[in-house]
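Example (one chain per record):
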Amino acid sequence: MCCLNMTILFIHSIASIASHLFAFFPETFSSCTLAFCSSLYVDGSQSPFLLTAADETSQVNVYNLENNKKISTLKLDASEKSFGTCMCMAACDDSSSNSPSRILIGYEDGTIALWDIATRKMLCRRQIHSDAVTNLDFCTRKNVGVSGSVDKSLCRWSLQNGTISPPFKQEVTNPGIACLKFRPDGKLLVSGGWDGNLRIFNSRLKQLAILALHKGSVTSVDFSSDNTLVSSGKDSVIAFWNIYK
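Predicted structure:
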């Protein structure tokens, strides 16, 4: 596999995207928690949003990318006990829906909550993990979400009648789920671990394969439009995989 040429093309593509982004969104903001929780882009029905973890515990700031202004903050009611730091976020509405404004947030105490950006209300929540939620993804096609934690657990759950269902738990060999991604058709899920391994599952969390390449933690996984799997790691390697196409 010729990683060098593909890596150069990938970096060039990222640089091109970044140049457009800064031209579109030249203003900056700072947050002490960005290192713990990746920002989330949501293509809203009226305008695109950018969500970032706020400095305040358990809060998320919502920015309107048409005017580069913060428009709201998703925060718990005063009566709610803190869930700890916001660790990860994922959209759970298809972009073709009339109002793609619901998001899922994973927290430090193992809670996952469903929020509505438009109303700034938490719709439901459930403690899925006993420790911090390190990553999550949601497949709108199958109405299934999967989340990982600092321990060995992967949890599968769904949104049913306005609630998050009790989870089905699957354990992997080594602790630390760094990243998760469903293939767009929902038939495959990929997890990247602190142990450097990529694990391939079907939608019911049956493990199909382990891909051992990265030296050190996997940092990101994603699928291209032709279902090519792309992974990156702390070893500075970007890998492209043709698997189960």
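Caption: The radius of gyration is 18 Å.
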